[in-house]
Amino acid sequence: MNDLVLHPMKEIRIIISGEHVTFATDLLDRIKATGYTIISNISGKGHHGIHTSHMMFNDMESLVMVITVVPQEKVPPILSGLTPFFNKYPGVMFVSDVAVSRLEYFSGSSPGE
Fold first, then answer.
1. Are 17 and 65 in contact (CB under 8 A)?
2. Do the strands 44-46 and 37-42 form a parallel or antiparallel pair, or are they unpaired?
3. Virtual torsion, Cα 24, 29, 32, 38, nearest 10 deg
């Protein structure tokens, strides 16, 4: 049995209005992130006070969180793509160090490459 090996990566969490989720996912697709998770109806408290999710008919009016894990070299293009967006629209982004056990799931390479 092979020992489990962990590989350093970066986790990016983008919290934006649901109406802009396509912008974020298109950006991640362009930089060839291998995947992302979208969590709808985010509630919380920030410098603008409490934000509660109110999903009436769709998730366009609520906040969403888009989460992806990418190699370090993909972080600068994501930051470059989000900078003009955050200059115009509200939202936040978090970048964290993470480690993954299945590098091929996140790097786009095949096992053994």
1. no
2. unpaired
3. 60
Q: Where do the domains of the chain lie? A: 7-107
Q: What is the DSSP letter of 36?
A: -
Q: Return the residue matching tokens 């969590």.
A: 39
Q: Average pLDDT for residues 8-35, to the nearest whole number? A: 96
In angstroms, the CA 1 to CA 95 distance is 33
Its pTM stands at 0.84
Predicted pLDDT of residue 107: 79
Tens of pLDDT, residue by residue over 95-111, are 999 999 999 888 776 55
Contact in structure between 60 and 87 (CB atoms under 8 Å): no
Residue type, 88: K
Class in CATH terms, 7-107? alpha beta
At 70, list the tokens.
């990418």
d(CA 102, CA 98): 12
User: 61: burial class by Cβ within 10 Å (0-12, 13-18, 19+)?
Assistant: middle
